[in-house]
TrEMBL record, chain A:
The keyword ATP-binding applies. Belongs to the ABC transporter superfamily. Residues 14-258 form the ABC transporter domain. CDD domains: ABC_NikE_OppD_transporters. It holds the Pfam family ABC_tran. GO terms for molecular function: ATP binding. InterPro entries: AAA+_ATPase, ABC_transp_ATP-bind, ABC_transporter-like_ATP-bd, ABC_transporter-like_CS, Oligopep_ABC_C, P-loop_NTPase. Keywords: ATP-binding, Nucleotide-binding, Transport. This is Oligopeptide/dipeptide ABC transporter ATP-binding protein. Signal peptide: none annotated.
From TrEMBL, chain B:
Keywords: Cell membrane, Membrane, Transmembrane, Transmembrane helix, Transport. It comes from Streptomyces pseudovenezuelae. The lineage of its organism: Bacteria, Bacillati, Actinomycetota, Actinomycetes, Kitasatosporales. The keyword Transmembrane helix applies. Residues 93-281 form the ABC transmembrane type-1 domain. This is Peptide/nickel transport system permease protein. Belongs to the binding-protein-dependent transport system permease family.
C-alpha cells in the first residue's frame, strides 16, 4: 500500500501529543476546544476522526495545519514540529500537509480560474525543493473525475461536489504526504458524499499519503477509514481499527454514537438517541467529561478524569 | 459600457431603437438614473477633452463688455472683468474633473494600501493606521481640509493634498473591513497552506475580491471630491484668481449678486458633475452587489 519510504518506517507521519487549543473571548474564561487530544497518523493510513458538532474535531484539524496555535502539547509532522502559520510564509517542509475544507463554496477563489488555482499547488512542490512533477492542472482534474476543460472555468460554474473535487485536486497538486479533510463531505448532497469520500481515500492511498478524515457521518467513515478516533468535548475517548471499534465499541459514548446510526436491515428499529446536549466546552463537567450523559455512570466518574489506556479507550469501566 | 451608452445617446430620437439598445445593457444599467448619470458623465468627459474646440472665447481674455447678461455672442454672459462665462465653465471642467479623478485615485491607493495592511497584518499595524484614521474622522471634513490647505498655502496642488488627507481614511476603513473578512476565508487559508507569502496572498486572493466594492466607493467619491475641491477654491484656498475654476467662479458670483449668471452656471456645472457620478456610483453598487437577484440574473446572462 505504501510506496514512499519514510526515514523511520515505524514512526508515525503525524503525531499529536496532549494537544490543548484554547479560544479566548474577552471577559470570559478561555474555551478549551481541544483539551489534551492525542492522535497518530501513519503514512498510507486513513484515520477517521468522529464526534458530535462542537467537540473540537475541526479545531484539531486546523491545529494540525498550523491554522490555530496550540496552547499546550506538541504536533510533529515527519520529524518537524508544526509551527502556527502567522504572517510569514509557511515553512516549505510543512506544505506536505494539505487540507480540504468543509465548505466547497468558500474554499475556492471566486475570481480566479480553476486551472490557475490548481497550478498554485503544482508550484508548491517546486517550492519545497522536490523534483517538479510534469503534472498539469488538466491531469489533476481528470484524476478527480472532472473534464480537462474545467481548468478554464470559474468556481461558481460548478456544483458543490465538483468544487470539492477541484479543492481536492488543488491539495493533491502539492503532492501532500498528509491530507487533512475537515468535514469535506458534510456540505455535499447525499449522492456526492460517498463519491467524494472514496475519491479522497483512493487518491491519498495511491500516493502513499496519510489521510486524516474528519466527519460526523459514521457510516461513511466506516467505509473509508482504517482506524477510527472518537472525540468527545475536546478529548479522544476511544481509538482503534475501524472493524474492531465498529464490532465492539467499548466507550459508552462510542456505543451511543453507533446506536444512533440508522440500520438498513428492514427490522424497523429506530436509532437510539443520546439524551442531553454537548456541555459548554468553556465550562466542562468535572471528572470524566461524558459522565452527565453516560448511561453507565458510577461512583467516582464525576471526580476522576480517565486517561486513554493502551487498549485505546478512556473510560473508568476499563481501568487497567 | 461607455460604448453602449454613447450608442443609446446617438439613437435617442428613435424611441424604438433606443429601447432595443437599452436591452443590450445589463439590467442594473437600464434604469433612468443610470442612463442619465452615464450620459452626463460622458458629456463632461467630452468637454474635458474638447474644451479648447468648444469654447467660443479665451477663458482668460478680458476683452468683452463687462457684466453683460446672457445673449448672442456670450450665451452665459460675461463677468466683472469682461470674460466669457461659458468659456470659463468649459475650461473649468479641465481643472475640476481631472483633479477630482486624480484625487480619488490617490485616496484609493493610499487608503487602500494602508487599510489592506491594517486588515491583513492586524496588531500594531492595524492599531496605528486605524487610530490615525480615527483622528482624521474626529474632525469635520471641510474644516480639516481648510486647516491643511491654509497651512500649506493656497494653491490647487495644496488643495488636492488637503482633500487627500481627509479622504483616505474612509477607503482605509472600508478596505480594512473587507480584508479582515476575507483573511480567514477558506480560499485565502488554502493559498497560505500552499505556501503563499503574505504579499502573494494579498495580491492574488484578497485584492481581486475587494476591488469591486472599492470601485463603487471611489465612483461615489468623485462627486464628493469635486465638491470639496470647489469648496476650497470658493473659500480662496484652492485655485488662484485668473484660473477658471468653478468654486472660485461661484465665489466671484457672490460679489455680484444681481448678476445671477456669474455664479449660477458654474454652480450648475458642479451640481451636474456631482449628481452624475453619484448616480453612476449607485448603479455600480447595484450591479456589483451579489445580494440582489437582479445581479445574479446578469451574471447568468454574461456566462451564457
Amino acid at each position: 500500500m505504501t510506496t514512499r519510504t519514510t526515514p523511520h518506517p515505524t514512526a508515525p507521519l503525524l503525531s499529536v501529543d496532549d494537544l490543548v487549543v484554547q479560544y479566548h473571548r474577552p471577559g470570559a474564561p478561555p474555551t478549551r476546544a481541544v483539551a489534551g487530544g492525542s492522535l497518530q497518523v501513519r503514512a498510507g493510513e486513513v484515520v477517521g476522526l468522529v464526534g458530535e458538532s462542537g467537540c473540537g474535531k475541526s479545531t484539531l484539524a486546523r491545529a494540525v495545519c498550523g491554522l490555530v496555535p496550540p496552547a499546550e502539547g506538541r504536533i510533529v509532522y515527519d520529524g518537524t514540529p508544526v509551527r502556527p502559520l502567522r504572517v510569514r510564509r509557511r515553512e516549505p517542509a510543512l506544505t506536505g500537509i494539505q487540507m480540504v475544507f468543509q465548505d466547497p463554496y468558500g474554499s475556492l477563489n471566486p475570481r480566479r480560474r480553476v486551472g490557475a488555482q490548481i497550478a498554485d499547488g503544482i508550484r508548491t512542490v517546486a517550492g519545497r525543493g522536490e523534483a517538479p512533477s510534469d503534472a498539469t492542472p488538466a491531469d489533476l482534474l481528470t484524476r478527480v473525475g472532472l473534464s480537462e476543460d474545467a481548468a478554464e472555468g470559474y468556481p461558481q460554474e460548478f456544483s458543490g461536489g465538483q468544487r470539492q473535487r477541484i479543492a481536492i485536486a488543488r491539495a493533491l497538486a502539492a503532492r501532500p504526504r498528509l491530507l487533512v479533510g475537515d468535514e469535506p463531505i458534510s456540505a455535499l448532497d447525499a449522492s456526492a458524499q460517498l463519491q467524494v469520500a472514496t475519491l479522497m481515500r483512493s487518491l491519498a492511498v495511491e500516493s502513499g499519503a496519510g489521510l486524516l478524515f474528519i466527519s460526523h457521518d459514521l457510516s461513511v467513515v466506516r467505509l473509508i477509514a482504517d482506524r477510527i478516533a472518537v472525540m468527545y468535548l475536546g478529548r479522544i475517548v476511544e481509538t482503534g481499527p475501524t472493524a474492531e471499534v465498529w464490532a465492539d465499541p467499548r466507550h459508552p459514548y462510542t456505543r451511543a454514537l453507533l446506536a444512533a446510526v440508522p440500520k438498513p436491515d428492514g427490522a424497523g428499529v429506530l436509532p437510539a438517541e443520546l439524551p442531553g446536549d454537548v456541555p459548554d466546552p468553556a465550562d466542562p463537567p468535572s471528572g470524566c467529561r461524558f459522565h452527565p450523559r453516560c448511561p453507565k455512570v458510577f461512583d467516582g466518574c464525576d471526580r476522576e478524569e480517565p486517561q486513554l489506556i493502551a487498549g485505546g479507550v478512556a473510560c473508568r469501566l476499563y481501568a487497567a | 459600457m461607455k460604448r453602449s451608452l454613447e450608442g443609446a445617446a446617438k439613437e435617442s430620437p428613435e424611441g424604438v431603437v433606443k429601447r432595443g439598445l437599452l436591452r443590450w445593457l445589463p439590467p442594473a444599467w437600464r434604469r433612468p438614473l443610470a442612463v442619465t448619470g452615464g450620459l452626463v458623465a460622458v458629456f463632461w468627459l467630452v468637454i474635458v477633452v474638447a474644451a479648447p474646440l468648444l469654447a467660443p472665447h479665451d477663458p482668460l481674455a478680458q476683452n468683452l463688455p463687462r457684466l453683460a447678461s446672457p445673449g448672442a455672442g456670450h450665451w452665459f454672459g460675461t463677468d466683472e472683468l469682461g470674460r466669457d462665462v461659458l468659456s470659463r465653465v468649459l475650461y473649468g471642467a479641465r481643472v475640476s474633473i481631472p483633479l477630482a479623478l486624480l484625487l480619488v485615485a490617490m485616496s484609493l491607493l493610499v487608503g487602500g494600501v494602508l487599510g489592506a495592511c491594517a486588515g491583513f497584518f492586524g496588531r500594531w499595524v492595524d492599531e496605528t493606521v486605524m487610530r490615525i484614521a480615527d483622528l482624521v474622522f474626529a474632525f469635520p471634513t471641510v474644516i480639516l481640509a481648510m486647516v491643511v490647505a491654509a497651512a500649506l498655502g493656497a494653491s490647487l496642488q495644496n488643495a488636492v493634498l488637503a482633500v487627500l488627507v481627509v479622504s483616505w481614511p474612509s477607503y482605509a476603513r472600508v478596505t480594512r473591513g473587507l480584508v479582515m473578512g476575507l483573511r480567514n476565508r477558506e480560499f485565502v487559508l488554502s493559498g497560505r497552506l500552499l505556501g503563499f507569502s503574505a504579499w502573494r496572498s494579498l495580491r492574488v486572493d484578497i485584492l481581486p475580491n475587494v476591488l469591486g466594492p472599492l470601485l463603487v466607493l471611489a465612483t461615489l467619491d468623485i462627486g464628493t471630491a469635486t465638491l470639496l475641491l470647489s469648496g476650497l477654491s470658493f473659500l480662496g484656498l484652492g485655485a488662484k484668481p485668473p484660473t477658471a475654476e468653478w468654486g472660485a467662479m461661484v465665489a466671484d458670483g457672490t460679489q455680484q449678486f444681481d448678476k445671477w449668471w456669474i455664479g449660477v452656471f458654474p454652480g450648475l456645472a458642479i451640481l451636474t458633475v456631482v449628481l452624475a457620478f453619484n448616480f453612476l456610483g449607485d448603479t455600480l453598487r447595484d450591479a456589483l452587489d451579489p445580494g440582489t437577484a437582479r445581479t445574479i440574473g446578469a451574471e447568468k446572462e454574461r456566462v451564457a
